[in-house]
Design brief:
The complex is a heterodimer of chains A (about 475) and B (about 475).
Chain A: H1 6-23, H2 29-50, E1 59-67, E2 72-78, H3 82-99, H4 108-127, H5 131-152, H6 157-186, H7 191-196, H8 202-219, H9 228-235, H10 238-263, H11 265-270, H12 272-291, H13 296-317, H14 320-351, H15 362-365, H16 367-380, H17 387-402, H18 404-429, H19 446-464, H20 467-482
Antiparallel strand pairs in A: 1-2
Chain B: H1 2-6, H2 8-22, H3 30-50, E1 58-59, E2 64-65, H4 68-95, H5 99-118, H6 122-140, H7 147-178, H8 183-192, H9 196-212, H10 221-228, H11 231-256, H12 262-283, H13 289-310, H14 313-340, H15 353-356, H16 358-372, H17 378-392, H18 396-422, H19 435-453
Antiparallel strand pairs in B: 1-2
Helix pairs in contact in B: 2-3, 2-5, 3-4, 3-5, 4-5, 4-11, 4-14, 4-19, 5-6, 5-11, 6-7, 6-11, 7-8, 7-9, 7-10, 9-11, 9-12, 10-11, 10-13, 11-13, 11-14, 12-13, 12-18, 13-14, 13-17, 13-18, 14-16, 14-17, 14-19, 16-18, 16-19, 17-18, 17-19
């Protein structure tokens, strides 16, 4: 391809923006952040246009020697699996800046620079073609998120930040041991070389699978290491929740697709049943716990556990429908949960409460808001014609092909999902206006509608024309599954 | 004459120390003494790095060697000296310590470290380490009016002289078993066979050196000495004493006891595991910043040993890199503490620092991340190097212990970050950082960042003995 290192540019542009923000001051911070994120989005456009959908290989590849002693190469590249995640990252970051425009009054300079560092970590992680680089971005991501939760979060922010830090760090440091073991046995950390190279012996694969999956499972999060998520998502500021739910969780799923499936195929077979069981537990148990929540943000957080259960279920069906559905579901979940957290954040800025009991009857005071929330709730519930439907449909189809009862249990999860979402909508929007909300200007302003507009567009686009994402996936997923 | 040229870095430092001692009566402010020490440090480092290496640059009939290994550690020691000198200026003026004597002791201690790093004879190794330790006792107790400092010096002295006796006893036993004091002859004798006498000697020698690097269970002095000493001295001990002990230990184990790694590996594994776990776990409950950094330094001694345990050339260079990087990141952390002044002795002194002094909190956060081992800082590169060496040598369980201890250490390092970033400031705003401290912090931060982004920079330079 061309000599222009487009992936490095879009990866490190936000970092440069963060540096500029730190060097300037508090006042222009949000403007610089907006310009940087929009520029990153703009610069990433050629990726989606020039991408060759018929090839499953890494495109726009860059490679430079980095640390010869450890045979580590600075390698960047995208295939059909990583490209949608990069798109999701750059879009959500723009929206995060827009959503924080008035909400972040305290130390905006630090806030926006942390946000931009996180953006660099996200793009870099999805663009890395080398496990070492992947790990570096994986770890960098923890730091800005720790600060975003801990500095700008809610009442229990410090506890939540610590819990997030220790869970993710425990997982990722085990990944470090796995990575070192992999480097030691194979002598390379290049994804391509690891996938096509000689197969590792099954016992080693099993150990490596445990080490890597520990990290990925914490991020996804899979049952039973999910407990950091409700705290972190609930306490984080809106932008933090959006990035957590939208991108950070996907890193785990992406890691499973990038590392576990292609590099450790025997171990995947070995651990298939436990992983499927944990996925089903996450779907059903997550949905039950969601039903019991009284805090809007916590409810959405728990629903993420259930929805991410579908993702791991899809991945471990190991068939095309399941894996494509899992990727699509990750993108959809990023869009919808991002949108739901944005909606909650917008109303929270006005009411300063997250208790469901404090709401009710918003449809009277804020019809536009109520309509948009309805759209996103229906999308999350898997309403046909909206985006999540396609992903869940593919996953459940894939699950039926593996074991019928898996599909049946997953359908039960969808049912529960519809219940808690519609019940949430009923309690928040329908009925009489809660007396406590009288006199507040609840309706969205133009900036907020514009912030949500891209997500509305994506919900409809992916619902009506899923091929817009699936087209990118097809060749790479086929590559992934045949390579095994 | 060639012997003296090879010894030039040490001679420069000793010359500077003597100059300071002779003029001590006339030096009242810290600045002139600091300039002398800085010039000497830069001169010694420059001389050591620029003079070309000969194949066998052996001086004084084979008791001192000037190889790449010694040169590498000399850079660490002189950098430590220079940074500590920069960090000391304000303290010396404020606590009315006699600056000439203080700097003379720093210079002589550094000379001892250099000798220990280039010794190929156990007796010179002992003399070098003793020179370092004796100067350190005085440095810890140099603030005479401070009872804490006196207490720390006494404790350090008692435990230290016990450890020195253990080391010397070990050396005597090794001599008894092998009939030699130079590494080459010891190595030749060791390869012929082992005796219980030799094993006991090796164990005692490692115990004595374990004291210098503050490895558990020989760590008890560190928290008390660091807490009682003035912060620049504590920084000097944390970075320098550990590097010197590691320099001696790595060379002795690999060249002296090299033919039979089984003799020392088991002991080192025990030391490493104990240091990592005890250091990390006890650091969690500390409320005094210097004690926290002391326990952190104990844990880091354990990590650094992983490379040596591997016993490979790659492992040796990993331990060397670890000592190098650890010196800069811990000097940086102490530097912030010193810049903040007395309030920073307690953890609570860091409360709200991000609001009152974002630059200081930024520096501190960088060093904390590096100490935790988060990429892309140098601390991560160092940790990666030692873990890779350990795994390559088959010590996977040790690597797992190391990463689990890292998780624990993340808790106490990030607790400081939480105080800085997530709590509101209390009390008076912090004082301004002196230029000298900022310069030292900038150097430490530069190494911490560059070492993480380009860890390949150590290739070919950090080569084992």
């Amino acid at each position: 391809m061309s000599a222009y290192p487009i992936l490095s540019v879009i990866t490190f542009l936000p970092l440069a923006g963060a540096a500029v923000i730190l060097l300037t001051g508090q006042r222009p911070a949000r403007w610089i952040a907006l310009v940087t994120t929009v520029a990153t989005l703009g610069l990433s456009m050629p990726l989606y246009q020039a991408f060759d959908k018929s090839s499953g290989a890494m495109q726009f590849a860059e490679s430079r020697p980095w640390i010869p002693a450890w045979s580590v190469v600075y390698g960047m590249g995208v295939d059909g699996i990583s490209l949608p995640f990069i798109f999701l990252s750059v879009v959500l970051c723009v929206l995060c800046v827009a959503a924080s425009w008035t909400a972040i009054q305290e130390r905006p300079r630090e806030f926006y620079s942390a946000l931009l560092v996180a953006e660099t970590a996200m793009i870099g992680l999805f663009a890395a073609t080398n496990l070492f680089l992947f790990y570096v971005f994986w770890e960098i991501m923890i730091v800005p998120m720790f600060l975003l939760i801990g500095v700008w979060g809610g009442a229990a922010r410090i506890f939540a930040a610590f819990k997030f830090l220790l869970f993710t760090l425990a997982g990722s440091l085990l990944m470090l041991v796995g990575l070192v073991g992999l480097l030691h046995t194979t002598g390379t950390l290049d994804f391509q070389a690891l996938t096509t190279g000689t197969k590792l012996n099954p016992q080693l694969q099993a150990w490596l699978f445990i080490a890597f999956t520990a990290a990925f499972a914490v991020k996804v999060p899979m049952f039973p290491v999910h407990t950091w998520l409700p705290d972190a998502h609930t306490e984080a500021p809106t932008a933090g929740s959006v990035i957590l739910a939208g991108i950070l969780l996907k890193m785990g799923g992406y890691g499973l697709l990038r590392v576990a499936l292609p590099i450790l195929p025997d171990a995947v077979q070995l651990f298939l049943k436990p992983m499927l069981a944990l996925s089903i537990i996450a779907i059903v148990y997550g949905a039950y716990v969601t039903l019991a929540q009284t805090d809007v943000k916590r409810l959405i957080a728990y629903s993420s556990i259930s929805h991410m259960g579908f993702v791991t279920l899809g991945i471990f069906t190991l068939n095309r429908a399941g894996v494509e559905g899992a990727i699509l579901q990750m993108i959809n979940h990023g869009i919808i949960t991002g949108a739901l957290f944005l909606c909650v954040g917008m109303i929270y800025e006005r009411t300063h409460t997250r208790e469901i009991a404090d709401y009710g009857g918003l449809s009277k005071a804020a019809p536009v808001y109520s309509t948009l929330l309805a759209l996103f709730c229906l999308a999350a519930a898997g309403f046909p014609g909206l985006n999540a439907f396609v992903g869940e449909f593919l996953i459940i189809g894939g699950a039926f092909r593996t074991w019928a009862w898996l599909g049946a249990l997953a359908v039960f999860g969808v049912l529960l999902g519809t219940t808690y979402l519609l019940w949430l909508y009923y309690r928040v929007v329908l009925g009489e206006l809660n007396p406590g909300l009288r006199g507040l200007r609840l309706e969205l302003n133009a900036r907020e509608v514009i912030t949500l507009a891209p997500l509305i567009f994506l919900v409809l686009l992916l619902g009506l024309y899923p091929e817009s994402v699936l087209g990118y996936l097809r060749a790479s997923v086929a590559n992934l599954l045949e390579g095994r | 004459m060639t012997d003296l040229i090879l010894l030039a870095p040490e001679l420069i430092l000793v010359g500077a120390a003597l100059t300071l001692i002779l003029t001590a009566r006339h030096v009242r402010r810290a600045q002139p003494a600091a300039v002398v020490a800085l010039v000497a440090a830069v001169g010694a480092a420059g001389f050591g790095v620029t003079v070309p290496l000969q194949e066998f640059a052996v001086a004084f009939e084979g008791i001192i060697v000037r190889d790449g290994y010694a040169r590498f550690f000399n850079v660490v020691f002189t950098a430590n000296l220079a940074l500590v000198t920069l960090l000391s200026v304000r303290h010396l003026n404020a606590e009315r310590v006699r600056p000439a004597e203080y700097h003379a002791l720093l210079l002589l201690a550094t000379t001892g470290m250099m000798l220990a790093g280039s010794a190929v004879d156990v007796l010179i190794l002992y003399l070098g380490l003793e020179l370092m330790t004796l100067c350190s006792y005085f440095l810890v107790g140099i603030t005479r009016d401070n009872p804490m400092s006196n207490e720390a010096a006494i404790k350090y002295f008692l435990l230290g002289s016990f450890a020195s006796a253990v080391l010397l006893y070990g050396i005597a036993l090794v001599y008894g078993a092998t009939g030699a004091t130079d590494f080459a002859a010891i190595s030749a004798a060791v390869s012929l066979g082992q005796s219980p006498l030799l094993l006991a000697g090796v164990a005692l020698v490692i115990g004595g050196l374990g004291f210098k690097i503050a490895a558990a269970p020989f760590h008890a002095w560190a928290p008390d000495a660091y807490q009682g000493a003035s912060p620049p001295v504590a920084a000097f001990l944390a970075a320098g004493s550990k590097a010197a002990g590691l320099a001696a230990l790595v060379r002795l184990c690999l060249s002296g006891f090299g033919p039979e790694p089984g003799m020392w590996r088991g002991i080192l594994v025990a030391l490493a595991v104990l240091s990592m776990t005890i250091g990390s776990l006890l650091a969690v409950s500390q409320s005094d910043m210097k004690r926290l950094l002391a326990y952190s330094s104990i844990a880091h001694a354990g990590y650094a040993l992983l490379g040596l345990i591997a016993g490979t050339p790659e492992g040796a260079s990993a331990t060397m890199i670890y000592a190098f990087i650890y010196a800069f990141m811990t000097l940086g952390a102490f530097g912030v503490l010193i810049g903040l002044g007395e309030r920073a002795e307690q953890l609570t002194g860091f409360q709200g620092l991000a609001k009152t002094d974002p630059r200081a909190s930024g520096f501190m956060f960088l060093f904390l991340l590096s100490l935790t081992g988060i990429p892309p800082t140098a601390g991560f590169a160092a940790k990666f190097a030692v873990i890779l060496a350990a795994v390559r040598a088959g010590y996977v369980a040790l690597a797992v212990v190391a990463v689990l201890c890292s998780v624990v250490s993340a808790y106490f390092y990030m607790r400081v970050a939480v105080l800085m970033y997530m709590r509101d400031p209390e009390g008076e705003p912090p004082q301004r950082f002196p230029i000298a401290v900022l310069a030292a912090l900038a150097v430490a931060a530069l190494v911490t960042v560059a070492g993480g982004i380009f860890p390949g920079g150590f290739d070919g330079w950090a080569a084992g003995p």
